[in-house]
Fold:
Amino acid sequence: MGASQSAGTEHEFQDLADRTGFSLEQIGNINKRFRQLSNNEETLSREDLASIPALDNNPIRAQIINAFFDKRNLHQNETGTVQEIGFEEFLMVMTHFRPAAMGLTEEERENLRREKLRFLFNMHDTDSDGTINLEEYRRVVEELLSKAGTIGQETAKAIADAAMLEVASTTRGKMEPDEFYEGITFENFLQILNTFDIETRMHVRFLHMDTATLRCGKSK
Amino acid sequence: MSVRVVLHSPSGSRSFLERGLLLLVMLIFLEGTVLTLGAASSPDISAQDNTGGHDHRGIAGSHDHTNYTYTKKAFPVLSLDYHHIQVPFEISLWVLLASLMKLGFHLIPRLSSIVPESCLLIVVGLLVGGLIKLAGEEVPPVLDSNLFFLCLLPPIILDAGYFLPIRPFMENIGTILMFAVVGTLWNAFFVGGLLYAVCQIEGTYLSQVELLPCLLFGSIISAVDPVAVLAVFEEIHINELLHILVFGESLLNDAVTVVLYHLFEEYSGAGEVTPMDVVLGVICFLIVSLGGIAVGAIYGILAAFTSRFTSHTRVIEPLFMFVYSYMAYLSAEMFHLSGIMALIACGAVMRPYVEANISHKSHTTVKYFLKMWSSVSETLIFIFLGVATVAGPHAWNWTFVSVTVILCLVSRVIGVVGLTFIINKFRIVKLTTKDQFIVAYGGLRGAIAFSLGYLLDKDLFPMRTMFLTAIITEIFFTVFVQGMTIKPLVDLLAVKKKQEAKRSINEEIHTQFLDHLLTGIEDICGHYGHHHWKDKLNRFNKKYIKKCLIAGERYKEPQLIAFYHKMEFKQAIELVESGGGVKLPSAVPSQVSMQNIQPKKLPPPVAERALPQFTKGREEEIRKILRSNLQKTRQRLRSYNRHTLVADPFEDGWNDFLLKKQRLIELEKKMTEMSNYLTVPGAIPDSPTMCRARLASDPNAFYNIKASSDGVPTIQVDLASPQSPDSVNMLNEFSKEGHTGQGLGQREGATGKGLGQREGATGQGLGQREGATGLGLCQREGADRDEDQGLMMKPAGKGEKGEEEGGNKNPGLMRCLSDPGPSNEDEEDEPFLP
Structure:
């Protein structure tokens, strides 16, 4: 890389740091990883992510990968998926996993909470219609239990149904037999995960990604 | 005085029969405590007692003499030999006192909200001690170190370890260790060092106090006490993070305290400390803490392994756990390792495996026993603290005591603030100033410090009494002042409280989901953080350890499914206990039923829903099995067996029986309603919800359902799996013909009712259908019984084949209703069946 190019990226990084709240060092780390995953290409495809060996054992691998290519998570007001993402988009997805900063006001905290839960919600709401319906929720539980073999698959439905009932009853209260609960809206989602301290739980450390660990992340 | 004198000789006490029995018991009790507990404890006090005893005997000698020379005497019809039962009797009295106190506080409504229980108990102890003193007795040294460390402390710690919230504990392990190790070291040296400096000031009359005893005192006084912390923090309902920080610190600082204590005690004798000793001290610390954990873990694994094979002797299951844990504690103490850490490790290690292995009843027993023992121990400890305060002896030195209290506060604040400053650089969720304040303020001292002080050798430490006085003052200060003000302060500062919510299935799903998501993101980032390692550990656990330690097939069960089963089971029990649904449990509530969340689809054509069904013959067969099982149950119930917990249904009495009958009728009503809701006659072209709505109001609907279990099932089957727990139970039962079915009646009850619940909930499809059949059978059998009793029947009684089943099967059904016994018991038995 030439000097001019690195200066360019530095400026670019500064710009990204201002927008995402990551530190320059973190952005540098993530960028390094991005290049490694994309084989030094400008963009990253699904296959690149799917080839990470450590992900093999993850029951919700497909959903995680999808989240990276979901337009809703890329801070764009549109739905649908993209085929390839650039570094900026990659970083945008990563911002959802940034730890909460110190000294947030109540409002900021609530916003952060909503933002993180929105990410989760989008992962569940696969058809982007604003509700998680029973089918979608079942799929989530099925994926979660996909490593458990047949018992898992067979119980998954029952669990999803029970969970859905729980949501319906906590959000709607009593329902008449001919009423119909369409699915979990985002507001419901916030409500049921009220006691779930998402803002203190959904985060990953982006520091200490030294090159040694970077290398073993991908089999090359 | 003479009363007391006579008491000492057993023969003399015979003359007491004439005196008031109350006075006798009272005095003997007081007197005896001195003797026994004293004898058990420090040698010097028991020596005192011996000489005292001789004196008394000398005075009472003439009395004895007259008794013994009386050669021919009528055979004593009633004699009194109090000494024979003295020790256990007094122990029981203390326990009774403690329990009554605990009971009393909760009867006074407002008191417990203002003053923490621990304070009240200390006051009670002071009063009791005062009374003993007023009676002119020597106050017994009740809080003697042996008694405390070997009997009172282990239950509390085991309870804490067994119910330790592992997840928050492990997530904050770094912070907890920092506070526990570095914080305690800092406190010990800061307090000890500055105390020494103060002692050197002219005019304090403390110049004889040397540096090492000061440091020893510092190490005793610096450790936060788990008993005191538990007692206070349980009442203020602080958020989980702060609770685990303070509580975890109080548990883990034990190793530091043990090492420091032994080090300084040793060096106080030797007088000199070389750098070599410091190195040895560090090594010793590692051995004490890690060794303690290792011992605990070994016993924990042993306990888990043993519980794998206890399926035939369920009654002694809980005992294994207690004995193994206690042995872990004792083994650790034997090597002067940290017994507390051993217990914590033992409890935490064995819990997941043991829970999967032992029966539901045993698990309840374990829970209750742990809670009972720990709360009694805790009560006793605080009462004894009060008594010990009165007992003295005290050497009050204003300077020493006040400096101690101030230094403890100051060092705690500096320690917490300083350490948090460092920790916050590494923590993702930073500790706020409020958090720091609560952590610092929650550093209560307690009975462990007192007992350690009590252990000091009088000859080596002439200032022992002064130390004890200072320790007691510090304990009183923290428990009373801090313990009483922490609750208002928490409210004032608006510190986040614990959210009172039982874990919902949604939360569980999302906890798991988030775990996997974060692991995945870490993998994508190429950063092997703690999620990654946790995931690795989990997988290792699942693959190897669970297989070895958990009996049968249950090791394969993922956490989510286990959680779901547990929840479902709990609901079934609640439903049974509430007598068939007066108040339905709320977790999967009944007011919303499956139809409300079902996608609005037209029911698929009937042909698709022609599902595996029970033919008439098959059904008959099932009924036969059920019947024979019930008969077997009856037969088994008649034979008494000391080793099983089968209750005799007839002992419940007639009234009880009628009550249950009543419940049964209610339950059946409920079931009828439920089954109306859950069946959808497919042929009706309306939307399913409409049909159901109509069915609900149609009393004849039930017959449709009845018919359905014989003919083509009209139940929609696209949802639940055949493997849903209900159906598993039923299927197992059916395939396992002639299985001794004491559990069957129960299970039917539980399943049927759990099902009633679930029918509102998940119940559609095969599982439900199966359940529905079971339900039908259960109902029908219930019906027979009702007819026997000449009670009114619900439509269920019209079950076509119901009539042919005569005979009195009440016991079985009663069990089915009354006993929320674990329906999974038989499942657990399975692998061991021949």
The longest strand of chain A covers residues 43-45. Chain A touches chain B through 80 residues (CB under 8 Å).
